[in-house]
Amino acid sequence: MERLERALFRLEQGFELQFRLGPTLQGKDVQVYTNYPAKGHKFDRLKFHPLDWFYPNGWEDDCDKYCRLDLIVAGSYQYYFSCG
């Protein structure tokens, strides 16, 4: 299991950040949350919102689904995931 609580990733504005399931999470009910501001909202460090899953092949299949963020607003943001 990855321990990335203290990891810092530098990403460029205009990039698309994708969250994909690793093999240990496939087949589980996973939800990804971030405090990156939703379009039209102000940044609040303590307010997290869920990201939607995208299914590029059109089927609700874990093998290639992903969540994404279009990085427009510069800053330091967090994410976490829940697995139920």
From TrEMBL:
Example GO BP: glycogen catabolic process
Domain Eukaryotic glycogen debranching enzyme N-terminal: 17-82
Pfam families: hGDE_N
One function term, GO molecular function aspect: 4-alpha-glucanotransferase activity
InterPro entries: AGL/Gdb1, AGL_euk_N
PANTHER family membership: GLYCOGEN DEBRANCHING ENZYME
Protein name: Glycogen debranching enzyme-like
Record organism: Notothenia coriiceps (black rockcod)
Source lineage: Eukaryota, Metazoa, Chordata, Craniata, Vertebrata
